[in-house]
Amino acid sequence: MFPDNFLWGGAIAGAQSEGAVHTDGKGLSMADLLPSGPDRFKCMLNGHYALSHYQPDTTYYPSHQGIDFYHHYAEDIAQLAAMGAKVFRFSITWSRIFPEGDEREPNEAGLAFYADVIACCRKYNIEPLVTIDHFDTPVGLIKKYGGWRSREMITLYLRLCRVLFEQFRGQVKYWITFNEMNMILHLPFVGGGLSFAPGENRTAISYQAAHYQLVASAKAVALAHEIDSQNMVGGMLAAGDVYPYSCDPDDVWLALKKNREQYFFSDVQVRGRYPRYILQSLAAQGITLDITEADREALRTTVDYMSLSYYASRCVSADPSVSAHKTKGNAFDTVKNPYLKTSEWGWQIDPEGFRITLNTLYDRYQLPLFVVENGLGAVDELTVDNQVHDDYRIAYHDAHIRAMAQAIADGVEILGYTVWGCIDIVSASTGQMSKRYGVVYVDLDNDGHGTGRRIRKDSFYWYQRVIAANGLKSLATPE
User: Fold this and answer.
1) Are strands 326-327 and 334-335 parallel, antiparallel or unpaired?
2) Are strands 414-420 and 369-373 parallel, antiparallel or unpaired?
3) CB–CB of 22/63 below 8 Å?
């Protein structure tokens, strides 16, 4: 069912886990400006607001503490090893290596931290899967260059990449250039450190920034291969097929357009050129991007695999009376699908949609896929005897692993699967600890209070058995 070398594991992100925001010379990143509470999403949408309202002395910023992975990484990786993990996805915090983002020389203390994390993974024969940029543009680059609206960001990003590829040559094989690159169109400040002045064309600026990221990604792939021919570098999408609400051709056409909106990124990264549909769409909007012949040449270097996050499918309707009925999703709302149940946060649960999405991507590219995020955000209850009975999470992962097995049987090539937030981390969208994804509980509340103790949930032991059986026994309940 699953290949013998299938990579089972877990995933976290630096901004949601590391903490230690002022330790060992780290600078501020975009994520460090996002407070807890009702202002968080406003800051995610508006970089000017986030910068002007940054008040660390009076406001709680969850990334400043995270789960203190910075000081607990050895314990946390040991937990993954006990679970049987074969791969661990984590991210590099750019401002921990280059505090302002444009220094000539890296911060050695930051490099030493990641060297220790990677060595710890290697100690347990866990393959590191490293995301180079996971929604954490250094604040220094936002203030100086306006984030990814500037072409200069390509040079600075590649400086970071060169340091990482040279420092960890032979120690890291799997890399991801940018986390969920398509999110720059939906959350431009999160995806690229973008802010907009009144009257600016947000669409034009967002697509221009996306272009610079695509060029940077392609050049990073070339650089990785130059430094170590064994490197495998992937792109990444926030994936999930968009369904038409009905068979009304207007609904079908709208769904096609929405799917193109996300596939634009992977089309460029896999095919090495811009698809005609996006060029036509931009021209129709009067948008001309700064694309040079050197850019076009650079884009011809394509990724080795496509990675993806999958939480839910989406649904659209051209009928305003239908599209008014929305539910929540990953960064944006979606028309409620009457055939699906939702999580406590309104995200639709659709394991068959996972199978559909995997087939869609593989049919489109015939390139290996890597599922690097999948999970259920839920409120967990810690019992008086320090247990967490999360049958709902087991059921979620069981259904999605079965769907993934079906996709493999369909002919889809998949390298591995990492559960998101394998150790409880701060939720990126809400800033809450109470929205938990992990199979390991972390004793902290939404205000960062608690012991920080790590406690294995029922799902930990279930996933441990799944990994041991290489997915052949995806049991819905513990033995």
Assistant:
1) antiparallel
2) parallel
3) no
- Model confidence at 332: pLDDT above 80: no
What is the token pair recorded at 149? 């609206």
Which residues lie below 8 Å from residue 389, measured CB to CB, with a gap of 6+? 381, 383, 457, 458
- The answer for residues whose C-beta is within 8 angstroms of residue 160's C-beta and 6 or more apart is 92, 94, 97, 98, 132
- 108's CB contacts (< 8 A; 6+ apart) are none
* pLDDT score recorded for residue 357: 98
State which fold the 7-468 domain adopts.
Answer: TIM Barrel (3.20.20)
Query: What torsion do the CA atoms of 188, 189, 191, 193 make, to the nearest 10 degrees?
Result: 120
The residue among 465, 454, 460 whose CA lies nearest residue 72 is: 454
SS3 470: coil
As a whole number of Å, the CA-based R_g of the chain is 21
3-state SS class at 138: strand
Q: Which amino acid is at 444?
A: L
Of the CA atoms within 13 Å of residue 82, those in its CB half-sphere come to: 14
Nearest alpha-carbon partner for 207 in 152, 272, 141, 283 = 283
pLDDT tens for each residue of 138-154: 999 999 999 999 999 99
Residue from 254, 247, 243 nearest 318 by CA: 254
Structure tokens at 71: 């000081």
Q: Is the separation of the CB atoms in 165 and 227 below 8 Å?
A: yes
Contact in structure between 160 and 132 (CB atoms under 8 Å): yes
Q: What is the pLDDT of residue 333?
A: 82
Match 């607990």 to its residue by tokens.
72
Taking the C-alpha atoms of residue 3 and residue 359, their distance in angstroms, rounded to an integer, is 17
Boundaries of every domain in the chain: 7-468
Give me the active site residues, please. 180, 373
Query: Do 352 and 288 contact (CB within 8 A), yes or no?
Result: no
**Entry pTM:** 0.96
